[in-house]
Amino acid sequence: SMLDHFFDPADKQIVAMLDLPDWAYSSGAAVRNGPLGLCLMDHPYRLRQEAKLAAYITHPNSTAVAAAVSVAVTASFAASVTDVSPMALRDLLLPGCPDESFQYRIFRLSQVTRNKHLKELGNRTVAYESTAAALACFALHSCSFRDAVSTAISLGGDTISIAAIAGGLVGVHL
């Protein structure tokens, strides 16, 4: 992978042993990875590799990286389809997700059929909660920026990240 060429194996071991600050587990990398989905939408393997690299530099945590890759892949998907659903996102994202915490949230994403189910995904700043909530807001309201963002804000918690991801994905889709 590109990470193997970019980082020395010793650096990876050091990062793995670090007591990472809270922000390393957050959705910051996911918030900024959407544009990669547009730039590399015709190159799915390269898209995943570049998304991993872009996330790992600032968020060297497997969950945060998985969330960031999921947003980039979803942006690519959103730009190329007319119909989006929670089940379609699950089918797209679950097979390539290496992180168990995020896998569970992606699986739960497919069960979200109304706004009232969104709280079950969580709304904290940890990437597996805020990113899953944002993906669900997008899936439920993929044709309405206003509805996706207002739903994201109504969840409370990490509203900035959830609304930014959901709104960005709707923008790509429209």
| Fraction in helix | 55-70%
Total strand segments: 0
Mean pLDDT: 86
The share of residues in extended strands comes to under 5%
Notable features of this structure?
mainly alpha; 11 helices; 0% strand; 174 residues; globular; disordered N terminus
Could you describe the 3D structure shown?
With 174 residues, this protein is mostly helical. Helices cover 66% and strands 0% of the residues. It has helices at 2-6, 9-17, 28-32, 34-39, 44-56, 62-80, 86-93, 100-109, 127-140, 145-154, 159-173. It starts with a helix and ends with a helix.
Strands, helices and their partners?
Layout: H1 2-6, H2 9-17, H3 28-32, H4 34-39, H5 44-56, H6 62-80, H7 86-93, H8 100-109, H9 127-140, H10 145-154, H11 159-173
Helix pairs in contact: 5-6, 6-9, 6-11, 7-8, 8-9, 9-10, 9-11, 10-11
Quick take:
The protein is mainly α.
